[in-house]
Amino acid sequence: MPLFYRISATDRLSPGKGWEIEDTIRFARILHKQGIDVLDVSSGGNDRNEFPSVTIDYQISLAARIKKEIPDILVSAVGSITNGKRGNEIIKTGFADVVFIGRAFLQNQSVVGLFAQHLDSEGKIPLQYTISAK
């Protein structure tokens, strides 16, 4: 069974006032040695004094930095990934191995099919969803 570990890569506080990307990199090395399969990289939401700058792809650089520092660890990227082509670019450029689209999925449960369309892919519908009830 794969083990995913979600981490807030930074508290998004003033430098020296909280958890920072360098702390995450040190901790990720430990987690990797302990056998986690995927490090799911998010950020913020831990302190009321944080100063987030929420934009498209605002967390991708954090995943990319961890991936660059620890190339053998599988890293997921999150953060307002709203287009299948962009998600694919994140993976193809090596910023992350996986992208998670939780917010987009909560807003539209058909987003997986939509992302497949962005990539000119038909995708595959599981058999149990193609059988109609009688």
TrEMBL record:
The keyword NADP applies. Residues 3-119 form the NADH:flavin oxidoreductase/NADH oxidase N-terminal domain. Coiled coil: none annotated. One of its GO terms (molecular function) is FMN binding. Its cofactor is FMN. Keywords: Flavoprotein, FMN, NADP, Oxidoreductase. The keyword Glycosyltransferase does not apply. This is Putative NADPH dehydrogenase. It comes from Neolecta irregularis (strain DAH-3).
